[in-house]
Amino acid sequence: MAAAAGVVLLVAGCGGGSDKGTGVAAPSSGSSAPAGSGAGAEADTGGSLDAAAVTKEISAAATAAGFTEEPSSDDIPAPLKPCMVSWQADDKKVTDSRKSYDDTVAALAKGGWRESQNVDQKGSVIKSLDKAGWTLKASHHGQGGFLMVSFIATDNGPVCEKLFQEDLQKSKTKQ
């Protein structure tokens, strides 16, 4: 389980400061602790989002664009759940995955997510979007019969950064 979070961390990217290699500053969270049980879309910590609100935004944008979430086991370790959101589209239930992906990203942008990086090469597109201390990696990989569309978001706040580092160290020591 910890190894899975480490892999997701590498894919999603994490940390306050900058999005390495792009020179684009990543926002830092307005709170010093993740808001794991906030009732509203915005937590009371300077407008920063919590995991439930991020999940709701991704799910609403993706389903409105024609995606269905793929049922999967929740492999995010319990201590990281307030810091990470993973949403994967069911590739068997979408008509035009690229159009749905583009529509999802556009809807997220309308909801305040700012695009900070875009990589488009050889059948894969990965866009980084930032909002209220979170970084969202929207990925569309479709080449040679393979299709995977995912949206993985991480909280860049100092508490979550520490939790990600601790989880990464645990997975390294288990190897």
Low confidence ranges? 1-46
Question: What is the number of helices?
Answer: 4
Q: Specify the structural class.
A: alpha+beta
Which percent range fits the helix content?
25-40%
Strands of the biggest beta sheet: in what spatial order? Answer: 3-7-6-5-4
Main sheet characteristics: 5 strands, antiparallel
Topology, number of strands:
7
From the alpha-carbon coordinates, what is the Rg to the nearest angstrom? 15 Å
Topology pattern, helix = H, strand = E:
HEEHEHEEEEH
Q: What fraction of the residues are assigned to beta strands by DSSP?
A: 25-35%
Mean pLDDT: 78
What does this protein structure show overall?
By secondary structure, this protein is α+β, with helices and mostly antiparallel strands. It has 4 helices and 7 strands. The strands form 2 sheets. Strands 3-7-6-5-4 form a 5-stranded antiparallel beta sheet, with helices on both faces. A two-stranded antiparallel ribbon has the order 1-2. β5 (124-131) and β6 (134-143) form a beta hairpin. α1 (2-12) crosses α4 (158-174) and α2 (51-64) packs across α3. Mean pLDDT is 78; it is low at 1-46.
Give a brief outline of the structure.
This protein has four helices and seven strands.
Q: Which helices and strands occur, and which strands form pairs?
A:
Layout: H1 2-12, E1 17-19, E2 24-26, H2 51-64, E3 84-88, H3 97-110, E4 114-121, E5 124-131, E6 134-143, E7 146-155, H4 158-174
Antiparallel strand pairs: 1-2, 3-7, 4-5, 5-6, 6-7
